[in-house]
Amino acid sequence: MAGKKISEEEIRETVALLQQYQNRAEAYRQQLALIELSIGDCESAINALDQLEKVKADKTALVPIGAGAYVHATISQVDKILMNLGAGVSAEKDSSAAKETLTKRKDEFTKIHGRLIEDLRGMHNEMQKLQLKIAQYR
């Protein structure tokens, strides 16, 4: 009888650990979604800068304002880009420096994405082991 109580306690601990892994995995999936959005934002900005290089100053263009809406605007200067550096700080950069910064950001997000995917795979492997352990008690 004492052996059964230990196994019941062990299964409860295993189920609790499995639930912790499931919660962490969900948090990782949410982080991955946000990072994928950030990567897409960087790519969009780099593409926009590429297109701006083809535009001459004082030309009218459609400028996205979000949610699929655009406004007609006159672009008075195409060689200087105002970039958010974080913590409410912005800086003016030329187009090539802005693209370089965006490319570095995208690369960093991509590295983080890869690490999260790797960690998530490890969690899934551990969850499978725990599920097999739980199944043995049934």
Concise summary:
With 138 residues, the chain is an alpha+beta fold. The chain is built from 2 helices and 4 strands; from the N terminus they run H-E-E-E-E-H. Strand 3 and strand 4 form a beta hairpin.
Give the key terms.
single chain, alpha+beta, two-stranded antiparallel ribbon, 20% strand, elongated
Structure explained in plain terms:
By secondary structure, the chain is an alpha+beta fold. It has one domain (2-136): Helix Hairpins. It is built from two helices and four strands. A two-stranded antiparallel sheet has the order 1-2. A two-stranded antiparallel sheet has the order 3-4. A hairpin with a 2-residue loop joins strand 1 and strand 2. The mean pLDDT is 90.
